[in-house]
Design goal:
Shape: globular
Order of helices and strands: HHHEEEEEHHHHEEEEEHEEE
Strand content: 15-25%
Number of strands: 13
Length: about 260
Amino acid sequence: AEEVQLLQSVLGGQSSSPSADSSLQSKAEGPGVEGRKRRILVLCRFRKHTTQGSNVSELPAWWVEEGRVSSVDVAKGTIGAPAFAFDRVFSHDVGQESVYAQIEHVVHGVVAGTNGSVLCYGQTSAGKTYTMEGPGNSCGSISELWGIIPRALHTVFSDTASATERDEGCENVRFRVQLSMLEIYKEQLRDLLDPSTRSDLRITNGPKGLVEVQGLRRVVAQDLEHALEVFRFGQSHRVVGATNANDRSSRSHSVFIVQVERSSG
């Protein structure tokens, strides 16, 4: 609860652009009345057992029902207490598309002129990279295994193309999409889109009161395929290492930033 309150205070200054497209703004309102009223939603996702061996039960360790999760006593086959409540809970058989559908309104909001963030955290081998990126290079072509980031890029370019077509001949609307990617490893910031340099990256408060990373490279993406290439380049330079649960486990925190600028006239 304290973490959510802190996020609410940080995001409290987000605002929508007065020139935002009305149809994009409606997409950004989120699924359902409750989604439109709240600025922060907390979602929880579970994955299957990954450890092999005779001591691993086939039964799930958690009981998932709507927005609640309870532990399971595998030996007794009973549901324990307490139950933990979230805005939405995804069991291990829920696919990538269903997960993305719950946060897609955040991406629509970015194109419409509203700041938004999607944060993913959990223990080692919980499925963070899979959820955010997908397995390996699955973002190379449209796939049901796409993670949140490649799906978000698809949404961004789909929304900007639709807005440009609607306004063609009226305002001469143009969009500019800039991408940045960094990782935090051993308390150091690394620019994943400019890994060969030792840039002195610093986190500062920008002129508009927003947090910025000075010295971070920004790449203007021409289209979806170019954006995916930029993302894959950053992916390939992340620090990874072998663990007991994953032979290529991400060893750092990564941040992928999409900035959408709209102009007309």
